[in-house]
TrEMBL record:
This is Flavodoxin. Keywords: Flavoprotein. InterPro entries: Flavodoxin/NO_synth (IPR008254), Flavoprotein-like_sf (IPR029039). It holds the Pfam family Flavodoxin_1. Residues 39-183 form the Flavodoxin-like domain. One of its GO terms (molecular function) is [methionine synthase] reductase (NADPH) activity. GO terms for cellular component: cytosol. GO terms for biological process: homocysteine metabolic process; methionine biosynthetic process.
Length: 210
């Protein structure tokens, strides 16, 4: 799948470089009053599909008028005060057979942090996970673990957690109704949500922000 950005999505920022992410996080902390319409999307991906799903979610929410920031889960600042400044925090994660707990390497540090049960009570969080039901014993193992940990941290999900099963077809097609529901729900449920103001333009190939 080719990742694309567009004039349709002028406010979407993708941070691939951890040093850049740290600078962005520091800047956001210093300008917290500007975070009202910012959405943080963190992904854990072993094969790239969860990363692609994060991109699609970012596109949808940007078109709905939000500033979106997409980072690996390990590079999310593990600080409840920081996370609470965002309108919404979206977690996207697949399962991996490379580790005993099936958590992808680029999400392991974030999941380890959740095991200390940080106070995330009433924080607006959404969760979308990917699995393959042909792996009976480990189907959606990482997603189930993250959902359970977030629940124990006091999270009440903005919408019910979504799940794409590889055995059921394209994960991107399974994502579409979930992300559409998320976009509608956020605008209705979260005070101060922006009106839709997507612009028309010709898509260009994405370049990572450095």
């Amino acid at each position: 799948m080719t990742r694309r950005t567009s004039a349709l999505y002028p406010m979407r920022t993708r941070h691939a470089n951890p040093a850049c992410e740290l600078r962005v996080q520091t800047t956001l902390m210093e300008t917290s009053s500007k975070l009202r319409h910012n959405v943080l999307i963190g992904y854990g991906s072993a094969t790239g599909q969860a990363e692609d799903c994060a991109d699609i979610i970012g596109d949808s929410l940007t078109a709905a008028g939000y500033h979106t920031h997409i980072v690996e889960l390990n590079n999310v600042r593990r600080d409840p005060a920081f996370l609470r400044q965002f309108t919404l925090f979206v977690v996207v994660c697949s399962s991996s057979d490379d580790n005993d707990d099936h958590v992808p390497d680029n999400a392991a540090e974030f999941v380890d942090w959740l095991k200390f049960f940080p106070d995330l009570k009433n924080m607006p969080i959404a969760l979308f996970t990917l699995g393959d039901s042909s792996y009976n014993g480990s189907f959606n193992a990482a997603g189930n673990l993250i959902e359970n940990l977030l629940t124990q941290c006091g999270v009440k999900f903005t919408v019910p957690p979504g799940l794409a099963d590889d055995e059921e077809g394209s994960p991107f097609e399974q994502l579409e109704p979930w992300v559409n529901n998320l976009s509608r729900t956020v605008k209705l449920a979260i005070p101060g949500s922006p009106m839709v103001h997507a612009e028309v333009g010709t898509p260009d190939i994405t370049t990572d922000v450095a």
